[in-house]
Amino acid sequence: MEFYDITHPISEQLAVWPGDAPYRFSWSARRADGSSVNIGAVHTTVHLGTHADAPVHFDDAGAALGDLDLAPYLGPADLLDLTGCGPIQRSDLEPRLRPDCRRLLLRTGGWPDPTLFPEVISVLTPDAAVWLASRGLWLLGVDVPSVDELASETLPVHRALNAGGVRILEGLRLGSVPEGRYELIALPLRLSDADASPVRAILRTAPN
Fold it and tell me: 25, 37, 128, 145: least surrounded by Cβ within 10 Å?
């Protein structure tokens, strides 16, 4: 059995969406200053690095992160390599997708340096998102900061996936992982009212 950590390391060098709150770590108490323990504090966007989106992120009536079922974030997942693909069409996916695929991870290679926010990314077309949702997908994960084009204000892919009950993972680190089927473990924090949460995402190969 082999593990792949597909989470971006969190540090002050990790790029966030322009204008969003960057990661900052500080000490609230230090043993060196006379405290009995060291205590750290974090201030950051909840859309940090590898993270899960909740429907309330783009829909005021949508569910918050703490209300979501965890089942989509845990279980068999298929990783497809679409590096170099332009807008990702249904025709790019349909011939390669297992009929029983419920969790799909897409490698596009669109965020090679996580210290720099990308200028352009490859994303699904809205039609492809609708098709994925209609065939019973539970979760879509991508290796870029968004499932929609970065300049989009209407977020059609987010909305199409959500309409079909598909949960969204963004910012996965998939560059060194071979294509194939894995067990995904990517549990978000139980943040009651939040629109997103960082996750510690790993892939585990099936035992021989």
Answer: 37
Q: Are strands 180-188 and 196-204 parallel, antiparallel or unpaired?
A: antiparallel
Are 172 and 6 in contact by the 8 Å Cβ rule? The answer is yes
Q: Give the pLDDT score at 207.
A: 60
Residues classed as catalytic: 57
Q: pLDDT value at position 130? A: 97
The residue ranges of DSSP E strands in the chain, in sequence order, are 3-5, 24-29, 39-43, 51-53, 74-81, 103-107, 139-142, 167-170, 180-188, 196-204
The whole-angstrom separation of Cα 134 and Cα 142 is 19
Indicate the domain borders of the chain. 3-7+46-204
Mean pLDDT of 188-206: 95
d(CA 171, CA 113): 11
Structure tokens at 56: 């309330």
Average pLDDT over all residues of the chain? 96
Residues in the chain: 208
Fold assignment, 3-7+46-204: Glucose Oxidase; domain 1 (3.50.30)
What is residue 176's predicted lDDT score, i.e. its pLDDT? 87
